[in-house]
Amino acid sequence: MDTPFALDRQRHLDRGHHSAIYRRLGLGLLALICVLGLANLFGQRSTLTRVDGSAASLTVNSPEHLRGGLVFTSEVTVIAHRKLADAQVHLSSDWFRGMTFNGVAPQPDNMSSSGDTVTLDYGPLDAGQSMPFWISWQANPTTLGVRSEKVNVSDGSEQLLSMQRSLLVFP
Known about the structure:
The protein has two helices and eleven strands, in the order ααβββββββββββ. The chain has helices at about 10-15, 20-40; strands spanning about 45-50, 55-65, 65, 70-80, 85-90, 100-105, 110-115, 115-125, 130-140, 145-155, 160-170.
């Protein structure tokens, strides 16, 4: 059989079986990555972390694995076990590093930063009162790696609770 102009039978038609194996392995690897993503291996599912103390409880419901570019929400809830005169939540800088902070609802009475900590001041809480708030984020597309997110709850200058979570951001 004659080949068209500029085609070589050995190079273009009668190739060895090795290239077919590599193509199939590559396609299989891509399919495996897609299946693992559908199984939520690469993030987005929220996990609940809770810390209890004598004065208050803290619950954080937020993903521990993310992909770059993902928009997500963290739910933080403080429950007072006694009257708190000035409930404050302190977030470490790792909550904000490589993330776009879209907003918090409900808004705190005061939001400030000192050093590497952002403080959300929600004012007084009665015993048994729950104070949930939601923070909207987006993982910057160029962000990747592991970071340690710390959350502290205080009543004014008195620290009540401390929590540490880790966050893994995939490319």
